[in-house]
Amino acid sequence: MRHLIDIKDLSIEEINALISVAKDIIQNKEKYQRKCQGKKLATLFYEPSTRTRLSFEAAMIELGGNVLGFSSSNSSSAQKGESVGDTVRVVGGYADIIAMRHPKEGAALVAAMKSEVPIINAGDGGHNHPTQTLTDLLTIQCEKGRLSNLTIGICGDLKFGRTVHSLITAMSRYKNIKFVLISPEELKIPDYIKKDILEKNNIEYLETNSLEEYMDKLDILYMTRVQRERFFNEEDYIRLKDYYILNKEKLISAKKDLCIMHPLPRVNEIATEVDDDPRAAYFKQAKYGKYIRMALILNLLEEKHVQKYHPELPEKLVNVIKCKNPRCITSIEQELPHICVLADKENKIYRCKYCEEKIDKGE
Ligand code: NCD
Description:
3 domains, 13 strands
């Protein structure tokens, strides 16, 4: 059995294979319409969703399977205080595979540690969103014809945007990728992405707060929404929410074959006048999401995988230091062991196993 918690759980070959299957599904839908007959997908969504949940459900239905689940924590036993681990153990008795979205970082990993059926992380707080990344990669492959030799601008909330973290992690494994990271100072990319992904892999990147400055260099512009639900202070959100608004004028210097992406939902970051621009790919991107999720469900259900996710790191501390991140799953589930792993031996940097926040050993 195998889970998808972090995009790093898949090798580049496995990602490319999923993209090939998704493309085949687009061409030959009939071939796949009974592949999951008799199987059930449970969607456990503790947080709002339109595209992700419905595309998962549509994916399973188009494979001939069935779906069950809940779309808000209010309508589940989480409201009564049930832990994520208990919920997935129970649901594993009703379904063959589970897609789960949760507001706390590391919740999907906790689910995977307890579950007897495959878990797919459909978003864990501001941390990761691997199936959005698979969607993004299929979009880039179909729209640009390649996943290498690209300059990718990512704009908006790079701090809390989970799609951004997973996308950078995945794209950093392809050849000759450069990133232009566009955000206000307060919403810059987290340290663990910079240090453990970009710098460790010698990926060229620069940080700027200007959307226009490097527009002419970009092959892809990935816009994101300021993640209101992750702010502890509404005033900060109001101050930052309209920081970037992409409109026709800002695109004047852009390449003719730029690909404009957005995981959606859009709030104000892209003016609707851009929707008719042939370079706008965000609605197509949402459609690609269904096909890649079909490929993923098939893969996780069909193959007899050996568990590969999150290999045990040699040096880890259990219940020695507590994670203090209020967004971490450990902040609400008191029973969970606090596990921190040595992420960087040279600089002795420990990170929480669940949310990857840096843990100060001196604390
Ligand atoms: C994204 C998410 O949930 O992180 N949406 C999605 O899954 N397509 C982006 C967002 O909510 O801003």
